[in-house]
Amino acid sequence: MSLDGSDLKRGPIGKRVLRLEDGPLLAGAATFAADWTFDDMLHMRVVRSDVAHGAIRAIDVSAALAADCVYAVWTPEDVADIPDIDFRATKYTGLDPYKQPVLARGRVRYVGEPVAVVFAADPYAAEDAANLVFVDIEELPAVTDASAPPLEFLPGHDTEATVIEKGYGDVDAAFATAPMVVELDLKIGRHSGVPLECRGGVARVDPETGILEFYGATKRPHPNRDLIARTLGLDPAKVNLFEGSVGGGFGIRGELYPDDFLLCAAALRLGRPVRWIEDRREHLLSANHSRQQRHKIRAAVGADGRILGIDNEFFHDQGGYLRTHGVRVPDMTAGLSLGPYDVPSYRVAGHVRLTNKTPAATYRAPGRYEGTFVRERLLDAIAARVGISPIEVRRRNMIPASAIPFARPLDALEVDVVLESGDYAGLLDKALAEFGWDRLQADLAARRAAGEAVGAGLGFFVEKSGLGPTDKVRVEADARGRISVITGASNLGQGVVTAMAQICAGTLGVGYAGIEVTTGRTDRIDEGYGSHASRTTVMTGEATRQATVALRGKLIALAAEKLQADVAAIEIEDGIARHAETGASITIADIVRANGDDIVSAEGRYDTTHMNYPYGVHAAVVAVDRETGIARVEKFMIAYDIGCAINPMTVDGQLQGGLAQGIGGALFEEFTYDDSGQPLSSTFADYIMPGSTEVPGARILLTEDAPSPLNPLGIKGAGEGGINAVGAAIASAIDDAIGKPGSVTELPVTPRRLMALLG
Fold first, then answer.
1. Maximum Cα interatomic distance, the chain, rounded to a whole number of Å
2. Would you tell me which of 128, 235, 604, 613 could form a disulfide with 543, CB atoms 3.0–4.6 Å apart?
3. Do the domains at 22-30+467-607 and 144-192+289-397 have one common CATH topology?
4. pLDDT, tens digit (0-9, with 9 covering 90-100), for 540-594
């Protein structure tokens, strides 16, 4: 194997190998947030507002302080020196008034907002004492509709935090000359990741070093460390984050919440380790929600069904505050909504509005699940208006392979949108063949003739992945021959440990199963950007490859010296450096020992100024029960081109899991509120999630026809392709089933909404 990047996909790279992460999980040896424990530990309980919008008149903590085992109780006055929670990064200005304080300052803005915290020696005592805290709140009118005219948020600031405006071309001219205009009013309901494990963590100050340590799911260890340090006035070198096992990420864990800062401040100020574990009701009330948008979109359309221009005004329901992600979700909706289509002119205005609901942020395929639903509904409506098939309207508007790379005059996440590789029509053809689309149409027609309400639909999507700007990895070989990969990534269950081990093993020439991969620890590597935005396999993977190439070069040079051979004649295979002609050999362990060091190491860094763009097709068969309004997904197919699959088995798992969540958002899951801002979905009795009987096993077509030119392995991300177009495909299938094109305009399609469509 050459060191210049050629001959890359070898060994376990690209193979369906078993996950290294699963052993400790299956053996019960994994460490989750609730498993971290220290001597003399306190337990934190958060007192939360039961009013959606109101002025705090008084907080009485006397009864709580008098309770057994209670160590301290904090109100807003006790943390007045802690600034409002800052954004990690944003190009948008004027957003500071909308930041969230760690405890409500004078006013509460959603049910579940922290207003006080109790610390006790026993978790149950902390919970009991929290119930003794009396909070007097004067209730104020609540804002629950983000599409209604803005009201006052603070003096001088209304509930519209900003308007995200993007576009290009002459949209007005397109509409002035278009033979027809297609208009839609579309809504996506509020739902979220709802992982198996609720949030939590343990904070303590190391008595020997004075370093603040945070144990728990971090997702972005180094950026989170830096934000904690900045907020609490600490040197980042005096803060370390340690991530154990994680019971699901999905965007929920991408943020820092008030609870995290309170936990860390308590460890510093109280001088004892402090644990906080969220219960499920707290999670549903206070962890990030997502998705809720309303789109008023119109398209200027030619007589042949080609889009001439798109004009979209949408309203993003942000909830009570802007959290650490700022306005990244609506920014992605605005910048990435055109998908695989060539649209000559485009204008979008995304109104980011504050309401008296739980704050919103990222959830798997943030901004794209929403944008794909809207765009694909628009394509279906155009097809019905022109009188052509949904397949044909997509073919006529698709960017041809010959035009790629395709640069849009748009940005998303402060990165110019350049679709760097792809053959969209080619994948559509493969997907239709794999799903047996033509034969399926005949089968469905026969079933409808027999009285069934059953239909098929599809959605095409383009994802984004590989968000930069950089990632750094260190690879080590020790005197026992063990290989270690140390990264700034996080292990959220996505298979990052296995993928990095595969890349390292294939590049170095060793077995993957013995490689130790360290993630989620700021004390082991000085920088990293974490696991989010489908970036890890791309960014951390390429940095791992580069570090391994460098380490391999060092080991080969040392082996050549010991074997008295030319470097070009040495190859490493199965952990042994061997002379190609003489057969003389030396193990990696012996190379390290002979060098007189405990380890031989090398670092790799991957920098990029662009993202890359995997793409795919979702197709669904849905049956509708006319008596109950229940829609059942009978079949589902995911066709996805990710350039290079490091481990196709883990990619399949990612796609299947994304499908389950997509079905939840399409048919079941929704956080609803009454007019006073009271949540109506605060338990699993009223926040309905799909079970195993509602999620079919997906037929998966994984292709590697369009590797990314931005990294040598051609990798694109895979984490969000399973969910992106699920809502769009199911909506289209329901239209087909009930024989009413364009009828589905809102997700989720609950039985109540479906019965209304059936009439």
1. 86
2. 604
3. yes
4. 999 999 999 999 999 999 999 999 999 999 999 999 999 988 999 999 999 999 9
Predicted pLDDT of residue 529 = 87
Which three-class secondary structure state does DSSP give residue 740?
coil
Cβ(156)–Cβ(147) under 8 Å?
Answer: no
The two tokens of residue 206 are: 């190391």
Under a CB-based contact definition with an 8 Å cutoff, are residues 311 and 298 in contact? yes
Contacts of 590 (CB under 8 A, 6+ apart): 562
Distance, CA of 710 to CA of 694 (rounded, Å): 39
Which run of H or of E encompasses 746? strand 746-747
pTM above 0.90?
yes
| One CATH from 3.20.20.480, 3.30.360.10, 3.30.365.10, 3.40.50.80 for 144-192+289-397 | 3.30.365.10
3-state helix, strand, coil in the chain (%, to 5): 30, 25, 40
Q: Rounded to whole angstroms, how far apart are CA atoms 160 and 149?
A: 9
Q: In what order do the strands lie in the sheet with 453-462?
A: 453-462, 615-624, 631-641, 699-703
DSSP assigned state of 432? H
Asked if 309 and 152 touch (Cβ cutoff 8 Å), the reply is no
What gap in Å lies between CA 214 and CA 203, rounded to an integer?
A: 4
- Cα separations in angstroms, 125 against 34, 54, 200: 17, 28, 18
Q: Could you give phi then psi for residue 162, rounded to 5 degrees?
A: -165, 165
**How many CB atoms are closer than 10 A to CB 153?**
20
pLDDT of residue 91: 85
Distance, CA of 433 to CA of 617 (rounded, Å)? 12
Closest residue by Cα to residue 682 from 276, 358, 318, 250: 358
Rounded Cα distance, 169 and 389, in Å: 28
Output the CA torsion sign for 414, 250, 319, 744: positive
Q: Which of 84, 86, 72 is nearest to 133 (CA)?
A: 72
* Tens-digit pLDDT profile for residues 602-618: 999 999 999 999 999 99
* Boundaries of every domain in the chain: 22-30+467-607, 33-142+193-286, 144-192+289-397, 418-466+613-759
User: What are the phi and psi torsion angles at 529 (to 5°)?
Assistant: -115, 5
| Upper half-sphere CA count for residue 498 (Cβ side, 13 Å) | 22
Burial 342-361 (b: 16+ CB within 10 A, else e): ebbbbbbbbbbbbbbbbbbb
Q: Which CATH architecture has domain 33-142+193-286?
A: Alpha-Beta Complex (3.90)
Question: Which numeric CATH code is attached to 418-466+613-759?
Answer: 3.30.365.10
Residues whose CB is less than 8 angstroms from the CB of residue 691 and which lie 6 or more positions away in sequence, other chains included: none
